[in-house]
Amino acid sequence: MPVVTVDWWKGNDRKKRADLVNELTSTLARIAECPREAVTVLVRDVEQDHWGRGGVLADEPAAAGADRAPDAEQAGSALPEQV
Fold it and tell me: pLDDT tens-digit profile of 59-77?
């Protein structure tokens, strides 16, 4: 059944992870027309020094501002692409 993987920066607390899993499960179950129990959500916390964008690691000062990954609430549903 459906499996979704989310990579995001380390530091989000358990409540945020639980909310994310709940929301993604509900949405995917609705769209895939399957029971919630059939949906698997994997959440992977990534250190900022393991995340590059625009040729710079996210923990570097040069990555501040526009070059950093957007906050999910500010960016709507923008999530990093899976490769």
Answer: 998 766 644 455 544 444 4
Residue 73 CA: distances (Å) to CA of 9, 14, 20, 24, 50: 14, 17, 12, 14, 22
Phi, psi of 56 (to 5 degrees): -130, 145
Torsion from C-alpha of 62, 64, 66, 47, nearest 10 degrees = 100
- Per the listing, tokens 């625009």 go with 54
Q: Is the pTM of this model over 0.85?
A: no
Domains parsed from the chain with CATH numbers = 1-46 (3.30.429.10), 47-78 (no CATH)
